[in-house]
Amino acid sequence: MLISIVIPTRERAVVLRHALASCLRIPDDNIEIVVSDNASQDDTAEVVAAAGDARVRHVRTPQRCSMRENFEFAVGQARGDYVFIMGDDDALIPNQFPYMRALLEEFRPDSLTGAKTAYAWPGDWPGGTPPNTAGRIKLVYRSVYGRPEVVSGAQLRADLASKGAVIKWDAPRIYGGAMSREAIERLRAKSGQLFMGSAPDIYLTFAAPSVVDRHLKIKHPFFIGAASPKSNGVNFLASRSGTAPEAEFERFKRETKLDPIVDPIPITSTIQICELSLLEAANQYVYDGKLRIDYRREFDRALSSLREIEPDQRPAAIRALADFAADRGLPHELADAADLASRCPPAEGSGKKRKAGRNRSFVSFDRAVIQLDGGERTDVNAAAAVYEGLLGDNVRKVPRLPAWVGLLGRAASLLARRRLAGRNSAEAARPKSALFVYLFFGKSPSVRRELAYSVATLMAELDGDASRVAIFTDRPQDFADWPQRIVDISDRLAAMRWNGEVDFFFRAKLAVLVEALRRFQRDCVLLDADTFVRSGFVAAVDRALATGAAMNAFVRADPYPSFGPFETDLPHVGRYRFDSARAPMLNSGLVAARLEHLPLIEDALTLMDRLWAAKLCRHDIEQFAIGECFRAAGVEVALIDRELTHYCHHWAKRYMRRRLRRRLPSADAPPVAARPDIPLSKARTRLFKARALARLAWRALRLRGAGVRPKVETARQSNI
User: Fold this and answer.
1) 255-270: per-residue pLDDT in tens?
2) CB atoms < 10 A from the CB of 80, how many?
3) What confidence tens digit (pLDDT) does each residue in 141-154 have?
4) Helix residue ranges, H only, 586-620
5) Cβ atoms within 10 A of the Cβ of 405, count?
6) Which of 32, 268, 431, 665 is the most exposed place for a label (fewest CB within 10 A)?
7) Largest CA distance in the chain
8) Which of the four pLDDT bands, split at 50, 70 and 90, describes residue 307?
9) How far is 720 from 710, CA to CA, in rounded Å?
10) SS3 of residue 163 by DSSP
11) Domains in the chain, please, with CATH?
């Protein structure tokens, strides 16, 4: 499948070279990069020739034309099955392009859009002052690798009619999004040309729902929509305050006036009026005037935008609106022109004041902000390289979703919003559901089967919602086909296990729980791989988290009778004293913690390391430490053992592993939601143990009879 990346440009070689560089770094030979040169007189041709890549094609318009005509010419030169348009100061994120291709090949939508990602070039902006966000890169982790959502054409058209001339980034688009060749040809057949408005990107967003039957949107960035001092949008907005360079903005208006396609409302200085004009153009050319536009609402929005421009520019905008209303026969929807000016407050003191920007970089548990300062590495290609590092290249297979999933999702969201509306604000502010977390490291096929069985039983309780399960692993490549969230910890697993003296792998459990709480900012439930859940498990976890925390089961009352006295200061709990009479041990096959318990889990890590340093070198101190921190902080801990089975004991584990080898011959297959179907009880375990010991005894007798000394079989330490 050929994908065409189209870059219309005009006299912007200085920024084009960086946009083109981001495309050249895409690891895909089945693409073409079409640079459509609008009769530029600068070094555009030399920049394209210097690329030296067979995927790049340089086409040139016969003569200088409008932006709309250049877009039309550029798409006409594309040969791909999908077309993606980007500006000459924008960028693609190279290592995310394979994920976009996977989505297109899997779903075959008419159009695709990802999450909005913006970048402002530093430099000499119109008016002399760049925005506070210039050179700043911001990534919010909850906006990446979201679940793909398929939206029908009927829903798109209903949204357009209900919301009107409001640009939605996740709407069908060809600028910053991909559109199929079939959808392009259907739209061109309706009006003779693809673009019928002076701002082709905005026009197509309004026109596309007329031909798109299957739109795919996903919360994940593939593209950086940048703004530079050369951008048409930047100079258009600067014209409202009279700070746009006269030659740049006037040239754009002059070329637009020479275009044979004329907008219903002439170009003015507010985006809202332009959006109304382009919505009306789409209604005229592709909807045959049948789109139900709420003109009263659109006029009110347009009139409200007049307060953002200079007073001397308002009369022209008012006249343009009045002429449009008279031409369309809308006298009741628009007030008399004499009364319109009274709705516009004076320019002095109007508008929003800019907040001082924080010129610093940081990476936290939920977002990353990187400031590119000084030097030459502040271009959009450098920004794309930073996004590559933040996002990584964890491209996973995307599951196919039926068309009705989107409808059910929207209905569920509506019901959830109604339920939340009836709750108090404190309850509504809490996360709606807990995230279930597993830790898996190493290559053991037995442990992988345990994990697959545990996840399968959990998925049956979650009604197949894989987004509520996260697997932290040092081998993410082994889980490429699993639909659950996969978190790569290969670069920090050793640090998670090291307690300052030895490599203690049980320490990694609490370290993973800490990272999960920080990363996902929601309640988390850590489960061991050698567990499986029964009916009612999720409800039991929710009940426990509503009042406190939860662990698996009671182990013993006085876990270390010969240890003590011991005291230490913990960062959050404060002074801790070991008291054997008040220190029961609870099993950590399950640890359910609310987000506000994060400091306690961190204290448990600290306590575990200090207990080890005090020569309490026991394999179970991790579950003792977390229980003690909960107790010291006064957190109510519920026990969940009926709805969860944890087969951590030696013979129960051997029994389950043998049954799992029969049930799951391949350890690599992704889990399929299923209720637990392997019977496990003390009686079955004892019978299995008796048979196994009998076989071993019979084998030993036979070997001794043959004069061979049998080897003593020892139990191997298992993974988590």
Assistant:
1) 777 888 888 888 776 8
2) 19
3) 777 877 889 999 88
4) 598-613
5) 14
6) 665
7) 115
8) confident
9) 30
10) helix
11) 3-343 (3.90.550.10), 434-646 (3.90.550.10)
